[in-house]
Amino acid sequence: MNCLSPSILSADFSRLGEQIKELDEAGAQYVHIDVMDGMFVPSISFGMPVIRAIRACTDRIFDVHLMIEEPGRYIDEFAEAGADLITVHAESCRHLDRTIEKIKEKGLLAGVAINPATPVSAISCVLEKVDMVLVMTVNPGFGGQKLIPYTVEKVRELRKIVDEKGLKTDIEVDGGVNLSNVEELMDAGANIIVAGSAIFSGDVTENTIRFLNIINE
Ligand SMILES: O=C(CO)[C@@H](O)[C@H](O)COP(=O)(O)O
């Protein structure tokens, strides 16, 4: 299934609850929540208290993307805060398999993310264990960057592997996605689309509906 996962990193934080309700009413299926620790990526964003607070605003899937060192330390807390899907980076886990198992033991969906310069082969051992692979299409840490073109080929490579193995694994793309390149990413094999600035610059409802019209075509 194709889904839209707007990234609230680009939201107006003074109206966060209101904007999440707007996404929900416009039909976005997921809410993408970027947690950054100032170590794995240069920025610091938000953590469990914010997730706990916005949980009351919507029943949509909370797609929590952990851009933090050794995320395995915090799986219990993110589960308790309201995550439905937790994605950890292959580059940030000393024990990736154990961290994925921990997410699944909590009864949550598990995702693994790879940075632009990390090859698809880095996650081949865990591919059959995860519900989703997140292919970063920018270097993580900031919203509003330009998509790195070579990452589209990684999406194509991953889709081929997933299909050849007969897996149902979702493929998410994140970074620099806009109304002009989303079709190319979907043609390459992505089915969960993250968009931050392209959703929150201007009219949130209108932008969400425009994306959904393409994604659901
Ligand atoms: O994880 C990240 C950035 O590290 C993303 O989720 C961004 O928040 C996407 O923002 P845009 O590139 O769509 O503005």
Task: Describe this structure as you would to a colleague.
- It is built from 8 helices and 8 strands.
- The protein has a single domain, classed as Aldolase class I (TIM Barrel, Alpha-Beta Barrel).
- It is an alpha/beta fold and 217 residues long.
- The site of 5-O-phosphono-D-xylulose (5SP) has 22 residues, from strand 2, strand 8 and helix 7.
Bound small-molecule species: 5-O-phosphono-D-xylulose
Compute the CA-based radius of gyration. 16 Å
* Share of helix, binned: 25-40%
Decide which structural class fits the backbone: alpha/beta
CATH architecture: Alpha-Beta Barrel
- Overall morphology: globular
**Strand content bin:** 15-25%
Return the average pLDDT rounded to an integer.
Answer: 98
CATH topology: TIM Barrel
Beginning-to-end CA distance, first to last residue? 12 Å
Residue stretches low in confidence (pLDDT < 50, at least 5 long) are none
> How many domains make up the coordinates?
1
CATH homologous superfamily identity: Aldolase class I
Main sheet makeup: 8 strands, parallel
Briefly, what CATH class? Alpha Beta
How many E-type strands? 8
Number of helical segments with 4 or more residues: 8
Structure described in brief:
With 217 residues, the chain is an alpha/beta fold. It contains eight helices and eight strands; from the N terminus they run βαβαβαβαββαβαβαα.
